[in-house]
Design brief:
Elements lengths: L6 H16 L26 H6 L2 H9 L4 H6 L11 H12 L19 E2 L5 E5 L4 H6 L6 H12 L8 E4 L13 H18 L3 E5 L1 H8 L5 H4 L4 E3 L14 E6 L2 H6 L4 H15 L10
Parallel strand pairs: 2-3, 2-4, 4-6
Antiparallel strand pairs: 1-3, 5-6
The chain binds uracil.
Amino acid sequence: MPKALDPELKQSVAARIRYYNELGIYDFYRREAASSPAVQDLPESVIQPEQREEMSPRRMAAAARTTPDESVLEIISNKPEYGVNDPVKALKIIREDLGDCTRCVLHQQGRKQIVFGVGNPKADLMFIGEAPGADEDQQGEPFVGRAGQLLNNMIKAMGLEREQVYIANIIKCRPPNNRTPERDECETCSPFLMRQVATIKPKVIVALGAVAAKTLLAINDSMSNLRGRWYEFRPTGARSNDPNWTSAKLAVTYHPAFLLRDPRQKKEAWKDLQMVMKELELKAPAKAAQ
Ligand code: URA
């Protein structure tokens, strides 16, 4: 059993890989070691130069004893769905890979089922929320509770049906008492979401709320600063098998659950959605409510 990688080192490796992905580099090669590979056996490309320079001798020794864990190795290998052109089949492969997931503590904390994602596997528009709640956990589908009803209304107001878009969350299991997902839960689960994004190849992603926005963009900022502009989003560690799709445009808006608590902000959310509609050349139906 590989030992877990030091969390700080794991984060640095992931950041480095994200940096290379942003440059369009996805393939990394790892020298095979006779026994368990130590950190110094990882390729130069996945170790931050500054990390080597700045590591204290104690951390360096600890890192050298640590074997990279599967989640990091997963990032640097090609994904099994990569050669599959049919997105329905590719999503099925990702779902099977996820299995009856026990990768983080949430599998022991009362989740009933994994909530993978739902919708059109070729959607131009994808909504990404935070985590399943009680209704989603019960039904195995994202956004089916009260927040989901509002999301459905938002989708309708954009001139679309729920079935035309794809809906997923940053994490796929309900956190106990609907607490905010922990960072390590997001980091463990989001690679599967990245693979879903690379398979669906949406033109536009709407991040619903702060957890989705901050996780997808790796930026820690307020919602008011994050909203109102476009970001280029490349799924970290997963690439599409279509040379014409390397990234989606990403917009941030308020989470529907927040809008239920503070309906005055619906006007602001509607501005975000109009920005998306303009990009996708969507027309609001004649009687669209805000
Ligand atoms: N809130 C979310 O972020 N996702 C859901 O699926 C439901 C509520």
